[in-house]
Design goal:
Blueprint (H helix, E strand, L loop, with lengths): L1 E3 L5 E6 L2 E6 L8 H16 L14 E9 L4 E8 L8 H11 L3 E8 L11 E7 L3 E5 L2 E5 L9 H13 L6 E5 L16 E6 L2 H12 L3 H4 L2 E5 L14 E4 L8 H9 L4 E6 L2 H13 L3 E9 L9 E8 L2
Parallel strand pairs: 1-4, 5-6, 10-11, 10-13, 11-12, 13-14
Antiparallel strand pairs: 2-3, 2-15, 4-5, 6-7, 8-9, 14-16, 15-16
């Protein structure tokens, strides 16, 4: 199995009462380097006599290969997912793959997933060569993505979504962002917000977020606050916030966070969602309490040729 981040020829942006589609003169589903890495991996597996994994027998070594292409450099971050607790048996394959890809390789990783599971990535990573994280320019800031952290598959459209989010945040605002990931939204706000509190739970995303904060100028770093752990356990980040951003997983808002937003609604809440059902449920709860009203709704086709979309809802405190 080869996983790669997708690219789409269409950018679909839906607004309340309007529909805009922006064409990109590029008809690829994903970057051509993904196919090149897949072909090189097949050849390297054969050359190194590395056995592919059999799900039925829970035997063999190579379970999957994850490929992400860094836009600026057009180089690939490659993760070899192995049915093993350590990287030693994977090294011959890794060396053959690195030799084949040469300068096209941005970073090469081993990931251990020795359990019987349909989860693709295991808990252990080891950098074999190259850079420790992808670097992307998003929302005016450098954002770093270690291989275990979530990143949008359609970065060009994600740029447009983040620009729309930024447009709803006034200069000097006190911002709290829950489920901040590697900082794709919040890092670009440090230059003009009075403070940004970042909440995130995933360890890999926290590594990327730390790299992103460290890359900002000193004055911007001073405006960053970190609230690590589950969103429901970091409600103190709401204290004094003018604007709250939430970008939860598909299941939606933590119950504790949803309750806090209902009982002490911020002046503005920006909700970015990858699950329309959970967004509709959470939006109904936020509005039914009388403290918030839905002011804007947009959808972004960040998952080309699927039924999924990213939704951005802007809620404002009801007068």
């Amino acid at each position: 199995m080869v996983r790669g981040r997708a690219r789409s020829p269409k950018l679909g942006i839906f607004q309340a009462g309007t529909h805009r589609v922006v064409d990109i003169p590029d008809c690829r589903i994903h970057h051509p380097l993904v196919n090149e890495v897949a072909a090189a991996a097949k050849s390297a597996i054969r050359a190194s006599a590395t056995p592919p994994y059999s799900d039925a027998e829970h035997a063999g070594l190579v379970r999957a290969i994850q490929v992400v292409v860094e836009r600026a450099s057009a180089r690939a971050q490659v993760v070899i997912v192995a049915n093993d607790a350590g990287p030693e048996r994977t090294r011959p394959l890794a060396e053959a793959l690195a030799e084949s890809l040469g300068a096209r390789l941005q970073g090469l990783w081993w990931n251990g997933n020795p359990e019987r599971t349909n989860v693709i990535l295991g808990p252990r990573f080891e950098l074999l060569r190259g850079a420790a994280a992808l670097r992307e320019r998003i929302g005016g800031a450098e954002v770093f993505f270690p291989p275990g952290a979530f990143g949008q598959s359609h970065l060009d459209l994600a740029d447009a979504l983040i620009a729309r989010v930024h447009g709803w945040i006034p200069d000097g605002a006190r911002v709290a962002e829950f489920h901040a990931g590697c900082g794709s939204i919040g890092l670009g706000l440090l230059g003009r917000a009075s403070r940004v509190a970042f909440n995130e739970e995933n360890a890999h995303a926290l590594e990327g977020l730390a790299l992103g904060i460290a890359a900002r100028p000193e004055a911007e770093r001073a405006r960053a606050r970190l609230a690590a752990g589950p969103a429901g356990s970091n409600l103190h980040a709401l204290d004094g916030a003018d604007v709250v951003i939430v970008d939860p997983p598909r299941k939606g808002l933590d119950p504790e966070l949803a309750e806090a937003l209902c009982t002490r609604p911020p002046e503005r809440l920006i909700y970015v969602s990858c699950g329309i059902e959970s967004f509709a449920r959470d939006a109904a709860r936020l509005v039914s309490g009388g403290g918030l009203r839905l002011a804007e709704l947009e959808a972004f086709a960040c998952f080309p040729y699927t039924e999924h979309a990213e939704t951005m809802g802007v809620f404002e405190r009801a007068s």
